[in-house]
Amino acid sequence: MELAAQRRPGALIRLGRRQHCWTLTVLADRIGCSPATVSRLERRTTIADLALVHRAAREVGVPGHVLMTSLAPPPATATRATRVTASQRDAEEDPMRRRTLLTATAAAGPAALLMSLDDALAGTPAPSGAGPLDGRLTGARALYDQGAHARLLAALPGLIADAHHAVASRRNLDQARLSAVYSLASAVLIKLGSYDRARLTADRARTWAEISGSLLAAAAAARELAIVLRHQDQHGAAQRLMSSATDGLEASGLRTEAAAAAYAQMLCTLAYTAARAGQRSEALAMTEEARRAARSLPQAAPPGRLFAISPAAVDLYAVGVHWALGDAGAALDAGKNLRPEQFPTAERKARLGTDMARAWWAWQRPEQTARALLDAYRASPGEVRDRPAIRRIVTELAEGHPRTSGVRELHTAVTQAI
C-alpha cells in the first residue's frame, strides 16, 4: 500500500514477482515480452504501455484496487505557486508548457481551458462538491451533443475531480462513471485535434472500465482509444483494438437494447477504421453488418444512452466510409436522402453537414461544399470552427474560391467566431 500511495506501479510488479521467486525472464515469458522490457517496467515511474502494466500486475497477483491507486494521479495538495518565467525561451523549453502551447495552437479550444484540463490530468484537483455526478455527467454529454466544446472543457476538471473522489467507494458503478468521464474528455479532445491528451484520457478510461467490469464502459473507452490511434496513423492497432472490443460485445449475447446499440456503434467505427486503412471490402462488409445490427433500434435513442446510434446514424457513417475510401460519388449517393431532422442532437445534425461537405469538396464542388458547411455551422458552430480538418476546408475555399456563393459568409462566420 505504501508503494501504491507513492504512485509506483513498477515497484508493485517487482514486489509481486519476487514474492513468486520469479526471475525477469520468467515473468517476461509469461506476459510475452523481453526481460529488458520487464526491467524497465519495474524501474520506471512513468507508464509507456498501460496494457503491459495490467498484464504484468495480474500475473504477479497485484490486487486491482491497489494497482488503480498506483496509477491514479496524485491527489491535490496546496495550490501551486505561480512560476514567473524569465524568458520566452524558458517557457518553450519546459516540456509541459511546450506541449500545452503547441496543442493549444493546433486546437480551437481556448488555451486556458486546455491548461486547466492539463492540471487536472497531472494531479487530481480537490473535490468541487458541485452536486450529484449523474446529473452533471448528463449535462456534460449534452454540451458535447451541442458542440459546446469550450463549456465542456471548463466543466471537465471538476467532473474528473469529483469522479475520482467517488471511486474511493470501490463500487463498480462509480468506477464505470469515472471511465465515462474520461471517455467524454477523450471524445472532445479528439474533436479539437489534441490527440496526445486524448490518448491519455482514453487510456485512463480503459483502465477504470476494466476495473469496473462494465462491458459498455469498456467498449466506449476502446472506441475512443481506437479513434486516437487512427488519427496517429496506427491503423492496425486501432483495428485490432476495435475487433477485440466488438467480439467481446457480441460474445455477451447482446441481450439488451443498450448492448445492441453498442455493438452497432462499434461496427460503424470498425468500418470507418478499415476504410481509413484502405481496406475496401472489410469496410463495406462492416457497414452492411452495422445496418443489420441497427435495424431493430429506435430512430431516436433514449436519453442518456451511452451509444446513441440509430439506422440513420449508420447511413451517415456510410457517407464517411465511402469518402475515406476515396469514392466521393458513392459518399454523396449514400447521404442524398439523409435530413437533419433524422438526428436528435446538434452535433449529429452538424456532422451530416460536414461529412457531406467533405464529399462535395472531394468531388470539386465548392458551392455545394460551402452550402453544406453553412448548414453545419448553423446547427453547431463548434463542429465547423473547432475541428482542424473542417477549418482547413473553410480556409481552402476562401483562398481558392472567394467569389463562390456562400464562401465569404462561411469564412467570415468561422474566423470571427475564433
Description of the structure:
This protein is mainly α. Helices cover 72% and strands 0% of the residues. The chain has helices at 2-5, 9-19, 24-31, 35-43, 50-60, 64-71, 88-93, 95-106, 111-122, 133-146, 149-166, 172-191, 195-212, 215-231, 235-251, 257-276, 280-294, 311-324, 328-335, 346-362, 366-379, 381-385, 388-400, 407-417. The protein is globular and about 75 Å long. Mean pLDDT is 85; it is low at 76-109.
Number of strands: 0
Taken as a percent bin, the fraction of beta residues is: under 5%
The rounded Rg comes to 22 Å
The chain-level structural class is mainly alpha
Helix content: over 70%
Q: Unreliable segments (pLDDT under 50, ≥5 consecutive)?
A: 76-109
Shape: globular
Q: What is the H/E order?
A: HHHHHHHHHHHHHHHHHHHHHHHH
Mean pLDDT metric: 85
Give the helix tally.
24
Span between termini? 48 Å
Largest sheet: none
Q: Identify the quaternary structure here.
A: single chain
Index terms:
418 residues; mainly alpha
Tell me the layout of helices and strands:
Layout: H1 2-5, H2 9-19, H3 24-31, H4 35-43, H5 50-60, H6 64-71, H7 88-93, H8 95-106, H9 111-122, H10 133-146, H11 149-166, H12 172-191, H13 195-212, H14 215-231, H15 235-251, H16 257-276, H17 280-294, H18 311-324, H19 328-335, H20 346-362, H21 366-379, H22 381-385, H23 388-400, H24 407-417
Helix pairs in contact: 2-4, 2-5, 3-4, 8-9, 9-11, 10-11, 10-12, 11-12, 12-13, 12-14, 13-14, 14-15, 14-16, 15-16, 16-17, 16-18, 17-18, 18-19, 18-20, 19-20, 20-21, 21-24, 23-24
Summarize the structure.
With 418 residues, this protein is mainly alpha-helical. Helix content is 72%, strand content 0%. It contains 24 helices and no strands.
